[in-house]
Amino acid sequence: MLLRIAAILCVIPALASNLQAADPAAPPAIGWRGNLTGLFPNSTAPLQWSLVSTGPTEGMGCAATLPADASGKDATPVAGGLVTKWLAIGPFDVKDGNAEFAKELIPGEMTLAPKAGDKVGELEWKAVAPATDGVSFLSVDAIGAKGKINQGALATSCLFVKSAGRLRAVVEHPVQMKVFVNGTEVYSKAQQWIAVGSAYGLSNNRCANIWPAGSSFEFDVKPGWNRISARLMSPPREGWNDLKFMMRLGDAPPVKYERRNILWETPLPDHSHGAPIIVGQRVFVTSEPDELICIDKNTGKLLWSATNNYYDATPQSDRDANPAFKEKVEPVAKQLAEEKDPAKRWAARKKLYDVLQEVDKARYTIKFDGHLQGHFEIVGFTNTPVSDGKYIYFWNGAGVAACYDVDGKRQWIRRLDAEKLFYSASPAVIGGKLAVYLGKMYGLDARTGQTTWEQPEVNKTVAALLSARLAGVDVFISQQGEVVRASDGKMLWKNPHKITNDTGWAPPTVLGDVMYIPWYGTGTMWILDFAGCTGDEWKPKEDSITGIGSGFPRLPTAPLGIPREQTAGSPLIHDGKAYIIDWCGGYYVVDLKTKKTLAAKALLSEGDANYVAMPAAASCTLIGSHIVAMDNQGHSVVLESGGECTEVARNRIAMQVPREWAITTQEYTSYAPPVADGDRLYIRGERHLYCIGASAP
After folding, report:
1. For the residues 577-596, what does the mean pLDDT come to?
2. Measured between alpha carbons, how far is 447 from 434 in angstroms, rounded to an integer?
3. What are phi and psi of 312, to 5 degrees?
4. For all residues of the chain together, what is the average pLDDT?
5. Cβ contact 325:312 at 8 Å
6. Rounded-to-integer distance, Cα 13 and Cα 661, Å
7. Phi, psi torsion values for 92, nearest 5 degrees
8. What is the mean pLDDT of residues 562-582?
9. What structural domains does the chain harbor?
10. Whose CA is closest to 155, among 138, 132, 175, 172?
11. Residue (of 307, 317, 416) closest to 353 by Cα position
12. Would you list the DSSP string of 357-373?
């Protein structure tokens, strides 16, 4: 060990002087992070942008007890439509929950204005808050209601809005429920209504292509304080009797917005954590679970789209050999290709896989790993497409690879099979080879899609594979830094630090012959210099930076029990510094020469954190001379480069999604980093592609 440390220390001076820029002679790299580096030093895109609602949700706040101050200054912000401040009382025993559903539990309950501690008999109004697990049930269990039959409970909150308007609520409840606003009944359902029920439900429904529908209703609010109350009643039967509900509020459609420097937003069929890529005058994005989409980069016009599912990847000879394809499968595939409504698309996709399994169950069953299935709502199958400048290559975690020209003509499509499907990784292309990962790394002929080699030693990769030219050799790099020769799949460098346990989710960054690998999130970064490496077994000069963030006050504790220093973002390497974002929005700047942390700051704190949502996943990006960091709730911070954390702008895209289930009404954005092109910036949202550019004042 001491000899190893001494050897590392000997190479530090050499590495410190070898902070290279990208090789100008290298082939075009179009894919992960747009150009694999996140560096767009020539960008002249604006640094400020916004899209915010003009309806009552903008600036909306809440309070458990009606404040004496009418200005709303003490209100707690309602982020993502979630009201977090409530008072609740219960349980009240009733003779028959069904028969007494319409009866008041407390006289005049629709107009009550309780304070914490007020009593009704032996029961007391107590403060309660919804869970923060992604589905956000407000449970009256916290005040003593234990899910028995024939019980009732009340919950009430105060909403502050700056302007009058109409709100839309989506609710789920395992018992009967009424809702009152300002003394008027606005919702009543004498039955349970559960769409997803849990964070696992979100993923399980998506894996099964089931589109659940929550219950929704609309109501008007006036400027200032408004009271919203709920009555819950369990029926006289065993089972779903928990006195709880979840509710999300959004502006009633059509929602109107004020925009700044947003030239256009193009609706997309579904979400994806893949970044957009730009090829000529076109932008390419993917959409769950199998779609490649082409958009005009100047106008936002949808030019073409193509599905890449198991049916599409079935050779025509196999279809011709079995009449069931023409009789049963083709009509459903056509319906899916033509359908635009999201719910109906899910139904058509489910039907397609159902009929495919009728044809051949073993061949067409999607083999989910249990961990993937539990996280599928956020992870999904799709990722960033790649291009060699002429063709666009698609790959998804279901094992389908395809190649298209820029006009949408499919060159080839094929399916690779695996015993189990795990997390997907973006493909990479270089030297006439396309690398994909499905339990191991495959090298496909980029012209034909045929397998030319397999590399089973690459047995763990998430997020992305990379292509690079190291020491003059075209190579592919795994998320864990392993280097594989593109021409024949030879493993040139095995990462000696690779272990069975989780060491992070972020791919490395490569500039010139130097690779920067985040390890254990932001805890360590390995720096490997491959200059001068030859032969079949490479031995790069190796260095590391540890203790990133030490010497600064510890950042706030992360939710969900995951170490806050974990990261899904690759390091941004610029001007001798590394810029890193952790999964909770912690921002770190490290001097690569001195190895000192120049900054450690809780930069983004409003992202949505739950079992199927990561607050900050996108890598930091260099736009011109500024650093951009983003969270998943539409917030972005623009900073001057350097270690002073000087903020230039805070931006926000607050597009609302008309949900059918009660999760955040805010569109998830920026699971992938932004991509710059000249004077424009492209940001991938959950349901939109946004083009940022200077607009007339």
Report:
1. 96
2. 9
3. -55, -35
4. 91
5. no
6. 56
7. -100, 125
8. 92
9. 30-52+260-310+366-691 (2.130.10.10), 56-255 (2.60.120)
10. 138
11. 307
12. HHH-HHHH---B-HHHH
